[in-house]
Write a structure and sequence with these properties.
The chain has 280 residues and is an alpha/beta fold. Helices cover 39% and strands 29% of the residues. The relative contact order is 0.16.
Length: 280
Amino acid sequence: MKGRVGLVTDSTSSIPASLAAQWGITIVPTQIKINQFTRAEHNVPKDVLVRALEGDMDVSTSAPDPAGFQWAYEQQAARGADEVVSVHISARQSETCDIARKTAAYSPVPVHVVDSGTTGMSLGFAVLAAARVAGAGGGPRRVMEALARRLEGSAELIYVDTLEYLRKGGRIGAAAALIGSALSLKPLLTMKNGQVAPLDRAMGTERALRKLVERAIKKADGRPVDIAIEHFGAEDRAQRLADRVRSRLPGAREITFTEVSSTIGVHVGPGAVGITVSPA
């Protein structure tokens, strides 16, 4: 294990727990506050969170506790890592990177903190690719090169029932221009320059989802890609989306079906679904 590079990320990466365990990735949980109670997101049941959002309770999110990073870096060192690459949600969306850098000063091994400029499985696939390089014996430079390659070509394509949750959370960015559209016009969003940005809109949910699939096919452009179908409180809708994507992109290298991080769910709201396209 000598010379191994350890990987740390935060829970907004939405990496399924089984894959994180398989590749030795440590995931630091972001935090969710419901009324006056703050918990690490994995301690907030999804159904409780959905009811809180739909009940118009006071729900907000925050970056991980610094103690979580300290534990993560110590855990990687205890596993035999000589250095750690710590990759996180866009700094324009969260203070996570800043907290990681401050905590890294107390790590028992050197830590390289990377602002991914994105979130969701665009971040997740990049971390998994980096973990594979690290597992093959790659040093920090090669690990971070693998990260950069996957992040550069990756895209988050997102459907939300309403922009209200993004507006409440202050994460709406350039997509604010879509507020005020007719209720029947459904927004499609993406991540651009580290912020949520408008992608398209369509009349009604079904047309919007068809457009989402078409955008994913265009983004794949015939290349080998990894695909993630993500949702928050919308498993049936996401499953239908996955079936469409599988039939239209039979050459996809990997298709991952996952519920997004609860922190992302707070901002996109119940009913949201997304497609991540990550060139392999």
